[in-house]
Amino acid sequence: MSTSPKEGYFKFNPRFVGMVDFLPACVAELNRSREHLYRLKLVGMYTEGELKGVGYGNISVRSPGGFVITATRTGGLPVLGPEHYTEIIKVDIARNSVDFRAVTEATVPSSECMTHAMFYQADPAVGAVIHVHHLEFWKRLLDRVPTTARDVEYGTPGMANEILRLYRETDLPRRKLAAMAGHEEGIIAIGCDLDEAEKVLLDAYRHAVSG
To answer: What are the beta bridge partners of residue 91?
Structure first.
C-alpha cells in the first residue's frame, strides 16, 4: 500500500499567526458541500483495517486572506463548526511552512493544505478545492486524468510542486480533476466555486462507480 496519512500528522511546519472569526455564510457553504461528501463516504474516517480511526478528505474555498480549509482530525465528524476550520494566510514551499489563523491555536490545518495552496497560487480562477478518498474511483482515474508521480507523498513540498507541474503541463486546468498516484485513494477536484468543484467530482464519481 502507498503511504496514507495518519490524521493529525503533517509534514510541514504550521505557525499560528492569529485568531479569526469565520463568517457564518462561509462555514455554511463549506458544510453544505462537505456533509454531502460525508454521506457518500468520500470524506470520513476509516472504521476497519490498519487505518481504523484515521480520517480522510478535506475541502477548501478561497478567502480574502488566503483560503479556508477543514482542520486536521475532523474527518470522522458528520458536522463541523467554526472551530473545525483554519484560514491559510501564507504557504512557503522553500521553508516548508504554513501560516494560519483559527478560532484557537489548537486548531491545526489539514495535512493537505500545501496541496490546496498550489491550486490557488496556480490560477486566480480557482475558488474551491475538494480532496476525497475512494479506492475504486481512484483506481479508475489513475493515468486517465492528470496523475501525480508515484514517488511523491502527500502533504509535502514535493506534492505541491507536482500539482503545479500538472497544472502547467497537462489538461488539468480544463479537466479540473486529478489523481494522486503516491497517495492511495487520493483524488482532487477544483472549480471556480464549491458547486463547480463538487459537480466535476461527482459526475466523474458516478461514471466511475457505475461504469
So the answer is: 98
Give every CB contact of residue 45 below 8 A, 6+ residues apart in sequence. Answer: 7, 53, 54, 55, 56, 75, 76
Query: Kindly report the CA angle at 25 between 127 and 60, in degrees rounded to 5?
Result: 35
Phi and psi torsions of 153, nearest 5° = -90, 160
**CA 91, 97, 99, 102 torsion: positive or negative?**
positive
Predicted confidence (pLDDT) per residue in 39-81, tens digit: 999 999 988 888 787 889 999 999 999 999 999 889 999 999 9
Q: What is the pLDDT of residues 103-153, one digit of tens each?
A: 999 899 988 899 999 999 999 999 999 999 999 999 999 999 999 999 998
Whether residue 157 contacts residue 96, with contact meaning beta carbons closer than 8 Å, is answered with yes
CATH number of this structure's domain 13-210, picked from the four choices 3.30.450.40, 1.20.1050.10, 3.40.47.10, 3.40.225.10: 3.40.225.10
Q: What is the pLDDT of residue 157?
A: 87
Pairing of strands 66-70, 85-92: antiparallel
pTM score above 0.90: yes
Which ranges in the chain belong to alpha helices (H)?
24-39, 113-122, 135-141, 157-169, 172-175, 194-210
Q: How many helices (H) and strands (E) does the chain have?
A: 6, 11
C-alpha cell, 12: 510541514
- Write down the domain spans for the chain: 13-210
